[in-house]
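#struct-help
A.M.: can someone run this one for me? Single chain, 486 residues.
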Amino acid sequence: MRTIFPAGLTPGPQYARTDLRVGMVHFGLGNFHRAHQAMYLDRLMNDGQALDWAICGVGVMPGDTRMRDAMHEQDNLYTLVLKHTDGYIERRIVGSIAEYLYAPDDPQAVIERLSDPATRIVSLTVTEGGYNIDHLSGRFDLTNPRIAYDLAHPDTPVTVFGLVVAALRRRREDGTLPFTIMSCDNVQSNGEVAKRSFLAFAAAVDPGLAAWMQDEVSFPSSMVDRITPATTDADRALVRDRFGIPDDWPVVAEPFAQWVLEDNFPAGRPPFQDAGVQLVDHVEPYELMKLRLLNASHQAMAYFGALLGYKYAHEAAADPLIRRLLQRYMDEEATPTLRPVPGIDLEQYKATLLERFANPEIRDTLERLCTDASDRIPVFLLPVVRENLEANRSVALSAAIVASWARFAEGTDIRGEKHTLVDPLAQQLAAAARRQRRRPLAFLEQPTVFGDLVDDYAFTAPFLEALTTIHADGVRAALQRIVGAS
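D.P.: on it. Structure tokens below:
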């Protein structure tokens, strides 16, 4: 371990990190968690609170070795850089992460940390696809090879489900109160989704354990928001050259941050409200607002923007046609599906979203937004489609967004430049996209993604119109027709 943060460097932790005690274990410690939940805890710690709620990060995926090495090398400290639209840059050193464990190195060490009575919250940012839910059936996929391995090898699990359930089994046997499981992923009713997944895995291990978890373990839902792009070499250079810190993995984010959290923590929680977290009885209205306005709009700009040759989100958001698509989608198709959102002015929220998308300092890549669409679009956009179809409302804009994804999946933009489809279903989707010029609905004939939407004329008609125009006249001509621009 090397010391890269000079003593007394400010703004940095205003607390003695030797006083920290782990109270929360987080799975999926990446840029977003470090820009969001870890930042909120750091705020509390700087005020002399929550020192017994420090974070132990846990990685389970092969790619997590990079985070393991960076965190170990830097004593779990890192630089958080906030970039404002006017070019102003804030930075702070975040110290709320006290430990990082890479599960494949020592799964028992992770189980021990989870079993410790001091661990009272287990939080998750494991991505939309990380809950192992089959999109078609809505059930936990017990046939997943990693899940099957954990069921056969309960003492050396490789998934978050195997590790967490092994610890809960031990806590039950020891008479230790269970921890709360807190999902922070972009999934509607993420607490309920997490509960369904963990209980399904536990039932396959021991039905009695699953029944105990049903009664004793809390799964609060949450809504989290902060645009946090992948760290680049330019970001590392900025932190090194401007601030004198050779940080291997700084985090860059926008100034905006929001966290709405269901207040259901039987084992206790930090005083999140003192750090700006909004604690509520029901998160669903806020979840729907964010998923269907922000996240779905990201998908709307991602594929059209990439096809037009843009590299960054702010470039796409500055294109008048894409901006008009976003505005019309939010107003005409997303907003009618939302519930009343206490304390939120929706018109102002939508206007703020367009400003955030256009922040040129963040340099969020469309490549990041185009990743894992088969996990994202069924969560962010297709629920809007289905609600509007049930209400006999138009889905023309949503269908056009899906058509842009279908064209993107062909693997080239309008200039013939190739790109890679990064998706769990990449091979299947790319093959379908290659067939669609002779079989126009081939892309929709993927029931694991679209269910039965291929049979609904109210959706397929505008989808085919948009895709046909993209193929025949180009992306910009299609956008002009879609948004009604001359």
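A.M.: thanks! The chain has a mean pLDDT of 95.
D.P.: also worth noting: The two ends are 60 Å apart (CA to CA).
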